Amino acid sequence: MPRVIEAYPEGTPLMEGLPVVSADGESLGTVAEEAGDRFRVAAPLAPDYWLPKEAIAGLAAGGDLGLSLPEDAIDGHKLDPPEGAE
Questions:
Q1: SS3 state at 24
Q2: How far apart are CA 65 and CA 63, in angstroms?
Q3: Which pLDDT tens digits describe the chain residue by residue (86 residues)?
Q4: Alpha-carbon distance 4 to 63, whole Å?
Q5: Are 2 and 21 in contact (CB under 8 A)?
Q6: Is 40 helix (H, G, I), strand (E, B) or coil?
Q7: Domain boundaries, the chain
Q8: Can you tell me the distance from the alpha carbon of 67 to that of 59, in angstroms, rounded to the nearest whole number?
Q9: Which of 35, 39, 47, 60 is deepest in the core (most CB within 10 A)?
């Protein structure tokens, strides 16, 4: 599990390009954009997908965005793109 050093500051926009890691330490991709209550993960060699911001556990060691979800739970939490997003 990535060691979360601090909570992600509430209300702070997610930085594009920030690496995203699962609760079990797997690299998932990078933050591509955010919209309302969700953010898009640009996944390497796979289609991008949207996750709820509530899945963010905080900032992990190395500055990665740590999630509260293990890699095998990601599919069950994927969201539809927000209206107007591609």
A1: coil
A2: 7
A3: 556 667 777 778 899 999 999 999 999 999 999 999 999 999 999 999 999 999 999 988 788 999 999 999 999 999 999 887 76
A4: 9
A5: yes
A6: strand
A7: 4-77
A8: 9
A9: 39
> CA separation (Å) from 86 to 37, 47, 82?
16, 12, 8
Contact 18, 34 (CB under 8 A): no
Structure tokens at 44: 């390497």
Q: Which of 68, 45, 52, 43 is nearest to 14 (CA)?
A: 52
User: ∠83-64-34 over CA atoms, to 5°?
Assistant: 10
CATH no., domain 4-77 = 3.90.50.10
- What spatial distance separates the first Cα and last Cα of the chain, rounded to whole Å? 31
Residue 80 contacts residue 50 (beta carbons within 8 Å) = yes
Tokens of 10: 């509430």
